[in-house]
Design a protein that fits this description.
Blueprint: H1 2-28, H2 47-51, H3 69-84, H4 88-118, H5 124-147, H6 151-175, H7 181-202, H8 205-221, H9 229-249, H10 253-274, H11 280-295, H12 297-300, H13 314-335, H14 339-363, H15 367-391, H16 398-418, H17 421-440, H18 453-475, H19 481-512, H20 522-552, H21 556-580, H22 583-605
Helix pairs in contact: 4-6, 5-6, 6-7, 6-8, 7-8, 8-10, 9-10, 9-11, 10-13, 11-13, 13-14, 13-15, 14-15, 15-16, 16-17, 16-18, 18-19, 19-20, 20-21, 20-22, 21-22
Length: about 625
Amino acid sequence: MADSNEELAALRAQVAGLTARVYRLEHKAGLVSEGLPQPKAAAVPPPSQVAAPAAAPPAPSAPPMPPGAAPEWRPSILAAKKEDQPDLESKIGQVWLNRIGIVAMLVGATYFLKMAFDSGRIGPTAQVAIGILAGIGLVIWSERFRSHGHAPFSYSLKAVGIGFLYASLWAASRYYALIPTPVAFAAMAVVTAATIVMAVAQDAELLATYALIGGFSTPVLVSTGENHEIALFSYVCLLDLAILVLSRFKPWKRQLWISFVGTLIMYWGWFIKFYSNDQRAYTVLFAALFGAIFAAIPLVTPFERSARVKGPSITLTLLPLFNAANLFLALYAMYSDETVTLTWYALGLGAAYLAIGAAFKRQFSGKEAQVIYLLHIAVTIAFITIAIPLKLQQHNSHWITIGWLIESAVLLWIAVKTETNFLRYLAGSTLALGIFRLLVIDHYPTDLLVFNPRFATYMVAIAIMGAILYFGDRYGSEREQPFVKLAGIGLNLLAMIALTLEAADFFERQRAALHGTDLYSAEWRHLWTAQQFSYSAIWLLYGTGVMAFGFWKPSAFVRWQALVLMALTIGKVFLYDTSNTGSTLRILSFMALGAVLLAISFAYQRDWLKLSSRGGTENLTTDPAGRD
């Protein structure tokens, strides 16, 4: 009896302890309301007391829980859920009515001041003074609400007050000309700095956003329409450095994006309006400073994992890529006619990103951190890809396409190696852009058959598609197989287009040699019919090769592509070649097509693939890669 009493008491104490532990965990997670008492673990009675027969408690009829623990525990969860999920009525009353009320008061105050200004009772100096005092007063007044736990309302008032300050300083400088532009600029910079200080002190990222918006708006507000490159870019550099330092201590990655976008707007806005070659030295210096600031983000800011996708923070991965592209674009805009200088810049940027990647690898370890290192390697490869043709002075657009294609392959390799999903999407987008440029933009005549830049570019794209097909077939997951098959289709389409374009250019060069000949002459008609026959021959031979490959693999997916290509060839021969080719070529077209079709039919009739044992049709879904 004593042993059972000891076991019962120990069980009660254990359950009470577990209840208290769960309570503390949910209290840390914010799921327990503060007003409810914390369950306490019951003390285990000494064995001597439990062993006494007189002290043995009767067997409990309910589950052994500490007295009062259950009613304290369960309502707390329900109450926390209700507090964490405010209903629509509470949201309207607490948030929307607050914002509408602020707007209404501002509109009313604006109309009152406008009426006073229009009547002439308040002069320009008094108007500016009222605006500045109102802005300062709102910022100070907002602290009262923040101290009472109404932080969102406090930040709303601060936003209005900061807006009053910027607007008043703008009016004093540009509208009333009460103060010089440099003074207004300095005053706005002080407002921006004060807002950043408040953001850090109050741990409020929203205030940092206000500061950045106001900071990048300041040059626009006080602009005189004159060129002040050094002053403008020095100010932007200081603003970017402040945000970089801030990101070292605060996990506010959004501010880095705002800073980057603001810098782009300031730089390119000035460049389009004011840039000239005599300013190139200073412009290159500032472009390099901007690039260095944003390139240092992975080294300066703490390494974080993304909350949205698998892998490291999107800011740490995408921002260096965008920064590298923007920096080279800025240099290209200034040195487009000086390929040798641009080559050295490309190599220098590649070396810089290689050094940054190596420094990051030494500073951080782990599989996810390796993504950042490999991305810097990819940027280095991209710059080398650009530098080689520039050094060879082959300044043709196809090198841009080749660069995109190689970059997509490197990004895809990094994505697979590090299992980073969003890099797969980035690689796919880059590959799609490269192929789009290849098909739509890179249309130019060639002087040689096959041995020309366009065909080489097609071969690079085909090789990348082949690599995706080869490795995806063997190592890709089932979810990735549709994209692998799409790469197989793209490979065949690109090969067909490349061969057809080569034939078209060949006959175009032949016709160019007949310059001055009548378009309806026998030579022109002969070249035209020969060109049409060459298309049919290329499609037929390529389709035959694809079909043979499908039998050899064996792969139903490949054979179906060959059948579709055969169908297109049949349609062209019967519907077009019949009336647009000469008798000899027409006979050759039909004879060749018939021979190929009979050979393929014979292969199917011999049932070399044992299709009849599968019920007459091949199951295309047995193997996700399309193999039999």
